[in-house]
Amino acid sequence: MKGSHANRQATKDEMAYATQVIQEAFPEYEVVWGSHGDYGGHRAPRDHTLAFRLRDLLGNYHSNVIWVAPEWLWSITVEWVKKMVMRGTSNKPRARKRSCG
């Protein structure tokens, strides 16, 4: 890091581990990663927070955005993923994008 103000970036190994855990929790869905700007930056808990959603083969999302700080990627578990996804998700699929207006 360049200084105490530098933002922590996730490594490829951390991302691979987190993706594997998420896929274990929900093998029927694809993990779609995003970041601060991808899912409405003003909703992120802080800058450089990562986020994921679960998507089926037809492109419908089956979860809300789940935010994860890069420094926590190694600590996520199947149980945590299931809890976070179920906390804010109904069983109905979500549209690919919401229309504005």
Mean pLDDT figure: 80
Q: How would you sum up the major sheet? A: 3 strands, antiparallel
The beta-strand count equals 3
Total domain modules: 1
How far apart are the first and last residues' alpha carbons, in Å? 42 Å
Structural class: alpha+beta
- C-alpha geometry: globular
How large a portion of the residues is in β-strands, by DSSP E? 5-15%
Helix content: 10-25%
Oligomeric status: single chain
What radius of gyration results from the CA coordinates? 14 Å
Topology pattern, helix = H, strand = E = HEEEH
Q: How are the strands ordered across the major sheet?
A: 1-2-3
Helical stretch tally: 2
Which regions have little confidence, pLDDT < 50, spanning 5+ residues? none
Word description of this protein:
This protein has helices at residues 12-25, 78-87, and strands at 30-34, 50-55, 66-68. Strands 1-2-3 form a 3-stranded antiparallel beta sheet, covered by helices on one side. Helix 1 (12-25) crosses helix 2. It has one domain (12-87). With 101 residues, the chain is α+β, with helices and mostly antiparallel strands. The N and C termini lie far apart (42 Å).
Describe the SSE topology.
Elements: H1 12-25, E1 30-34, E2 50-55, E3 66-68, H2 78-87
Antiparallel strand pairs: 1-2, 2-3
A few lines on this structure:
This protein is of the alpha+beta class.
Keywords:
101 residues, alpha+beta
